Amino acid sequence: MALINGGHLVGKYLKEVEKIDTVFGISGGHIEAMLDGFTEYKIRTIDVRHEQAAAMMAHATSIYTGKPGVCFLTAGPGFANALTGIANAYLDNAPMVILCGRHPLRDDLKGALQEIKQMDIVKPITKWSATCFDIKRIPEYLSITFRQAVEGRPGPAFLELPPDILSIKVEESLVPMPIRTTRKYTMHPDDDDLKSAAEIINNAKKPLFLGGSGVGLSACSDSFRQFIEKTGIPFVLMNYGRGELPDDHPNSVMDIGSIGLMFGIGQTDVIIAAGIRFNWILQAIVIPPTVKVVRMDIDPHEIDRNRMADAGLVGDIGSVLEQLTPLVQKKDHSEWIKTLKAAGYSVMDYEIRMRETPSDPIHPIRLVSQIQKFVGEDAMYVVDGGDTSYFGLGFSTNQKAGVMAASSGLFGCLGTGIPFGIAAKLARPDKKVVVLNGDGSFGFNAMEFDTMVRHNIPVVCVINNDCAWGMIKHSQELSIGKDRLQCSELGTRHYEKMVEGLGGHGEFVTEDEEIIPALKRAFDSGKPACINVMTDPSVTSPATPLFYQSLKME
Amino acid sequence: MRFTSLLFILSQILKWASKFKPAYRSYIGSIHQVKIMIKTADGKRGRLFIFDEGTVSSKSGANHRYDAAIVWSDASTGFKVMASKSDEEQFKAAAAGKMKLDGMAFFAQWFNDGVKLVM
After folding, report:
1. Cβ-based contacts of B29 with chain A (< 8 Å)
2. ipTM score here?
């Protein structure tokens, strides 16, 4: 007879069934048995300095590895601290698993330590949530939690585990581990819809493929490549779809940027939108009513959202493309691609010049260009901030999910950069990882440099320091005037000194020619590094007036 | 000459629209100090459009500071494409390198979208 406690059952399930090797969180009394379960089953714990970062790391891990990232939270404040990260994952449809302690069931309604109604709070920001009340059902509940996170449209799944079941023991043979389901449930688009979509695509003269997170979450590089190379259609990949085909693919028009895209989209005759929501961000790119739209999404509610589709295909993007590709004709749209790119370069003329020209003070786009020049395409980039995200999305990569700007998602969640950078380095330790942070957004999770130092995770964070909440400041200049700025300026701060104090490497850069030597020293140090670069505070990105316009109520 | 005249007429239309055309007034809103230049690449001809708290004003000449500029390779192309009021013609001009944007490209797009409301 062998006894096992509930916390060890959690560790056993994670390791043996889901093959989870790393989890993120902070310790706490309510989850002590679970922490010991991680030790017992040799699961690496990345203990962070704020649970928000743990949730963001689990979220990012799900994107970088293609399987659910896991975070663990203790009751009350530990739970509450993670809410921003959970909400962000929810709006991003990230398949993450949250394992959370709670006050003892035994002490319910008695004013127990950290007693709050966690389930009521978390329900609106998770795809699925439940409390497990029986130690024998822990593996079963965990299995449901993981399935809920990944099946259909993905999302965060939350399991509350009371100490009443984590800290007691049960005969191990009475709690068998469930066998993880291997069946893949695929929604099949209607045959008529497939024919209709193929007909639109076959008749297109100036088509464009817009791929979003659904492309990345489907991990459909092969079927996507076959579709693109058969149809000859130019493509743009956004969000977690970025890098599913490399930016330098002949059909990629990533280099015309969002400005080139806004300018060119009106000249298309067919848009194929795959795994991408037509939300406020995409609505800024106005698609004229004359343009036919073929939409693909795993969620049928997205097909006609904010724009009626001319053909709608419901299903996993990879599966839909596999079914659609045999129905489309082989075409050559190379002249159209050439024209679209040429027009895009003309409207990007200023940015292209700024990339190539040394500037004093340093222009943020020049900073991006110099980082790219030194680090190259075989690297992972994470960008975080308002204006900084716009500029950082100009990085080019040959890596899947190689340029991530989680802060420019639906939740607009600043502070995601460093947690995503840590997750990127853990997922792909052989790649250089660069986080480009705004100075404002850096502040949210800057203490995670301590996490990086303790766990030896050498990420290089470059701060695009304009001494302000730049997007807000420049938006206020447009809306209320330069003489009435409020809560938008930060001043010059030596963030690199803070990182040095934590045991990392620091660099302070004010001149263009110092950027690349500072990057070299930072990478050569082998430590987590912060390069604090003072950039031109007067520069406004095109994202700022877009943001301003989106909130204009006149 | 025709290009310069076209820019002057456009400035008068936008000034009028900012006062009397509700859709345009609403579109430009109360935005503070946005300056859009339309000019030729050689800098010999141009006009600045200034949007400030619901008003539109204008200055002739290409030597003013601006937030965004629509730069035409030559006056003849600028006139021809602008007079056509065609997005497709503008796209073709950009693809041929005859129209470029300088500075805050988004504002140039914003300006063009506003012009569509009054033309």
Report:
1. 552, 554
2. 0.93
CB contact under 8 A, A542 and B105: yes
Residue among B29, B96, B101 minimizing CB distance to A347: B101
pLDDT of residue A181: 66
Considering only CA atoms, give the Rg of chain B: 13
* B76 has a pLDDT exceeding 60: yes
* Closest to B85 measured CA to CA, from B16, B32, B10, B21: B10
Neighbours of B10 (CB within 10 A): 18
Q: Are B40 and B80 in contact (CB under 8 A)?
A: no
Strands A235-237 and A270-274: unpaired
Flag if B32 and A479 touch (Cβ within 8 Å): yes
Q: Do B109 and A263 touch (CB under 8 A)?
A: yes
* Domains of chain A with CATH codes: 3-174 (3.40.50.970), 191-345 (3.40.50.1220), 350-551 (3.40.50.970)
pLDDT for the residue numbered A180: 73
Task: Give me the pLDDT at residue A184, please.
Answer: 65
Q: Do B95 and A545 touch (CB under 8 A)?
A: no
> Which candidate from B88, B95, B110 shows the least CB-CB separation from A545?
B110
Residues in CB range of B11: below 8 A, 6 or more apart: B47, B49, B56, B58
The residue of chain B nearest to residue A343, with distances taken between CA atoms, is: B95
Q: What is the mean pLDDT of each run of 10 residues along chain A (554 residues)?
A: 95 96 98 98 98 98 96 98 98 97 96 96 98 98 96 95 97 91 74 97 98 94 98 96 94 93 93 92 74 96 93 96 98 98 96 95 98 97 96 93 91 97 98 98 98 98 97 91 94 97 98 98 98 95 81 73
List of chain B residues whose C-beta atoms are within 8 Å of the C-beta of residue A543: 106
What does each C-alpha distance from A280 to A254, A411, A412, A550, B105 come to in angstroms? 20, 11, 11, 8, 19
Domains and CATH numbers, chain B: 2-118 (3.30.1050.10)
Pairing of strands A3-5, A169-171: antiparallel
pLDDT the model gives residue A547:
79
Q: Which residues of A touch B (CB under 8 A)?
A: 259, 262-264, 266-267, 339-340, 342-343, 346-351, 477-482, 540, 542-543, 545-546, 548-549, 552, 554
Whether residue B100 and residue A549 make contact (CB cut-off 8 A), yes or no, is no
Q: What is the predicted pLDDT for the residue at A183?
A: 63
Q: What is the pLDDT of residue A31?
A: 98
User: What per-residue confidence (pLDDT) applies to A135?
Assistant: 98
Please name the member of B34, B92, B94 whose beta carbon is closest to the beta carbon of A263. B94
Facing residue for B102 by CB, picked from A263, A342, A350: A350
